[in-house]
Amino acid sequence: MINQIRADFYRQRRSIGMLILLIATVALGIGTTWSRTTMGITTGGEEYAHQLSAIERQGTVRTGLQAGAASASSLVYFYIAVFVIVIGSEYSQHTLKNTLTSGISRIQFILGKYVTILIDIILLTLCYFITILITGLALGRKPGADWGVLGKDVAVMTLLVSFCISVIISLGIVLLIIAKSLVAPAVAIVIWPVLIGLVESTAKWQWLKYFDFVGFGEQIVLNTLKADQAWIYAGASVGVVLVAIIGSALIISKQEI
Questions:
Q1: What residue ranges are annotated as transmembrane (predicted)?
Q2: What are phi and psi of 75, to 5 degrees?
Q3: What are the residues whose beta carbons fall under 8 Å from the beta carbon of 91, sequence distance 6 or more?
Q4: What is the pLDDT of residues 2-21, one digit of tens each?
Q5: What is the spatial distance between Cα 137 and Cα 135, in angstroms, rounded to a whole number?
Q6: What is the pTM of this model?
Q7: Contact, 76 vs 215, CB < 8 A?
Q8: Residues 14, 7: contact at Cβ < 8 Å?
């Protein structure tokens, strides 16, 4: 599995797609900070919207970081490229059989791909928040907190946002294995944040909110999530990742490569 991860990172270093994605991520960070507005779709409710409005009015470096976290749903649309480059290419370039016959087990293959995607997302999201931090300082805004707090904010926001986005992408892995096509998982990853909010409000299924993984990370960052609900969100997120990884391994083991 380690060799597979190394090979994936080696291929990425030679990929212009990852460079373009990095540039786009940095550009989003600059745009979010410059405009002092959030981008993307949020489903956090009235309390979340009120807190977000208050943050946007303050205009400090720290609130800029919080606004960046609230724009995390936009990053989902960007990071679909990571999914395509890391695991989608195995299908589009027909290299899956070579990988699976090189001595790696199915579960190691899926786990290795998820770990690679997660590391990629963490690094890109870190660049995103560092860009917001630097842009805020360059625009002459007040820090809003000491450097220790700002550093902690960047670390916590990076890990939370990255993990929550990786949960959605883990669902894309399952769909890719089932459909053997990039279309279904790509569409599912892109529309997931919108779909969950739409179905929840239409069908009045309150339990669906625990599968709004991007909203989960956003609400933690903005302190609008109650502690008892946070554990349910966290459990649902971890559970989905485990089911996705194990399920994908089981499905691919039954398929002809």
A1: 16-34, 67-88, 109-134, 154-177, 182-199, 230-252
A2: -65, -30
A3: 176, 180, 181, 182
A4: 888 888 888 888 778 899 99
A5: 5
A6: 0.86
A7: no
A8: no
